[in-house]
Design goal:
Blueprint lengths: L4 H6 L2 H21 L3 H54 L1
Helix pairs in contact: 2-3
Length: 91
């Protein structure tokens, strides 16, 4: 399991989600198997930490995609304004 952020950035989206789901399932299994909360929590802590790193990468990717989408929207809006001004000048 890659633990460094650079390793997570190389993974495909599908693989990130699959690893996240697997870590969640394994962490829940720790709590189902162990009657003592403290022991289950200590077993699940590394899994939760890895899942948190993956979740952080997923959020960062979503934010980057949103920023790109807004840039495209602003560029399209600016192009429309320029075309409308050009059409107004032509008449």
């Amino acid at each position: 399991m890659p633990s460094a952020a650079t390793d997570l950035r190389r993974l495909r989206k599908r693989e990130l989600y699959a690893r996240y789901a697997d870590l969640q399932e394994r962490a829940h299994a720790c709590f189902d198997e162990d009657p003592s909360f403290e022991q289950a929590n200590s077993k699940a802590a590394p899994l939760i930490e890895q899942a948190d790193a993956i979740a952080t990468e997923i959020v960062q990717r979503a934010r980057r995609a949103a920023r790109r989408a807004w840039r495209v929207a602003y560029a399209a809006g600016a192009l429309i304004v320029v075309l409308l001004v050009w059409l107004a000048i032509q008449r």
